[in-house]
Structure formats: C-alpha cells, structure tokens
Design a protein that fits this description.
mainly alpha, 3 helical TM bundles of succinate and fumarate reductases, 9 helices, elongated, binds protoporphyrin IX containing FE
C-alpha cells in the first residue's frame, strides 16, 4: 500500500483581512471613518446652532436635555464615536509609517510636487485637532468647565451659559478659533480625499469636488466659529443670575 502525502501548502490568508491590511484597504478604512466623522461634525454643528434659538440661547438647553434623555443610547453613540475616531487616527498613523518606511532615504532632488498647505500639514492639523478635542470634551461633556453647574429658568442644565461664559475667556476662544482654522484645513483636504479614495472623482469632476470640499469645510468652520465670536461680542447673552434656578432645585437633581 503506498502512502500519498498531500502537502497542504502555505495557508491562504482570509481575502477580506488581506484587503483590510493592504495599503488600499487602509485608505478605505480612513475614508469610511473620515466620512462618518464628517457626518458627526455636521450633526454636532446643527445641534450647536440651536444656541441661536430662543432667549439666552435656551434652544441648546432643550437640545441637550433631549440628547441626555436616554443615557444608554447616548453612551452607545459616544462609544461608537470614540471607536471611529480611534480607527481613523490609528489607520492614518499606520499609513504614514508605512509610507515613510517605503522611502527611507530623502530624495536627492526635491520634486516640485503640487501640494497645498492643507495637504502638507495634514498630520500636524490632525494632531492639533486631536488636542483640541481632548480639551473640548473634558471641558463641555466632562463637566470640567467652571461654568458647568448653572441651571436655567426651567431647571435644565444651562449649556448655553456654560458655552458663552467659557468663551468670555480670550484664551479659550482664541484656542478654539485657531483649532477651528486647522480643522477647516484638515477637512477641506479630507472631504475631497474621501471621494478620491473611492474613485468617485474622475479627471473632470476632480476640480468640482475639490471646490465642494473646500466650501463645505469652511461653511462648517464658520458655523462653529460664529459661537465664540457671538459670545465675545455680546451677541449671545446669558440668563441674569437672579433668574436662575439653584442647583439643588434643578431638573437633574430631581432625577
Ligand atoms: C464652538 C464650537 C463648539 C461648541 C460650542 C461645542 C459644544 C459642545 C458641547 C456643549 C458638548 C457636550 C455635549 C454633551 O453634553 O454631551 C460637546 C461635545 C463634543 N464635541 Fe463639541 N462643540 C464645538 C465644536 C466641536 C468641534 C469642531 C468638534 C469636532 C471636530 C466637536 C466634537 C465634540 C465631541 C467629540 C464631543 C463629545 C460628544 C459627547 O460626549 O456628547 N465639537 N460639544
């Protein structure tokens, strides 16, 4: 009886996994996560602009109350958002490292590649935006703002006053404005990159998509920046102190 030995050969990698760790796959991951983040930024801006509704910015107090009405849903959304941020940053880092490894030596002659300031500063603007985000989330969502314990006429957390009073500090509003400009640069390139990654911008439409990305990014930034500007200039006003509800009588203390 002859024994036939069957060689299994090298194990075939899972095709999906192989795609995801390839450089094209990583670009897809950066594109998809970036697209989701742009949706978040759009939704967040829409929520923030409710500060212009009603007296003393109380539109945003009602919006924040609705957002916090279901804590389980809120924490699931926050977890998802954190995951998307982590995937976006982690995958971008891994692409940058792989790119640097692929060309260990600097070119002897620098090719004059046409690139805008936004493209050349993507990593730097991304890092400043990240530090802004850490500060911002601790300040407003983490309750570290010195104005986090104010309540409006209806006993709701006075988110409007927390925001407006925070921006009365020129260091805080200055830091926001600088970070927002960098976020604008990051997004203006990021939005057109998403289209390029998925092959949605042909030769003809590329210019149009680039302009569209630029317009959307700066419209977003102007929307966000209007809030510190309106706070500093006194356009946005806070509820006078004698009309406030004491913290112990607030809606949150009665839960
Ligand atoms: C003037 C500009 C902005 C204002 C007034 C503002 C306001 C706020 C407020 C009040 C919260 C707390 C929400 C809560 O209670 O859960 C918050 C959370 C947050 N903001 Fe902003 N925001 C601004 C700009 C931005 C920008 C530009 C980004 C991102 C690029 C951003 C990302 C976030 C994130 C990730 C959270 C945490 C989400 C959460 O835990 O609810 N914000 N922001």
């Amino acid at each position: 009886m002859s024994v036939v030995s069957v060689s299994k050969g090298p194990r075939q990698p899972n095709p999906l996994l192989a795609f995801l760790v390839s450089s094209i796959g990583k670009k897809w991951i950066v594109g998809i996560s970036g697209g989701l983040l742009i949706f978040f930024v759009l939704a967040h801006l829409a929520g923030n602009l409710t500060i212009y509704i009603g007296p003393f910015g109380e539109g945003i107090n009602a919006y924040a109350q609705a957002l916090h009405a279901n804590p389980v849903l809120l924490w699931i959304a926050r977890g998802g958002l954190l995951l998307v941020f982590a995937v976006h940053i982690g995958t971008t880092m891994s692409l940058i490292i792989a790119n640097r490894r692929a060309r260990p030596q600097r070119y002897a002659v620098k090719a004059r590649v046409q690139s805008t300031l936004a493209v050349r500063t993507m990593a730097l603007s991304g890092l400043v935006v990240l530090s802004f985000l850490i500060f911002h989330v601790l300040q407003f969502a983490g309750g570290l703002s010195p104005h986090a314990d104010l309540y409006d006429l209806q006993g709701r957390h006075d988110v409007a006053a927390m925001i407006i009073l925070s921006f009365h500090n020129p260091l805080v509003s200055g830091f926001y404005l600088v970070s927002l400009v960098l976020l604008g640069m990051h997004l203006s390139h990021g939005i057109s990159s998403v289209f390029q990654t998925f092959g949605l911008s042909g030769r003809k439409s590329f210019g149009l998509i680039k302009q569209g990305g630029l317009l959307l990014a700066w419209a977003l930034i102007i929307g966000f920046a209007s809030i510190p500007v309106a706070s500093v200039t006194g356009f946005l006003k806070i509820l006078p102190a004698d009309r406030r509800v004491a913290p112990e009588l607030s809606a949150s203390s009665q839960l």
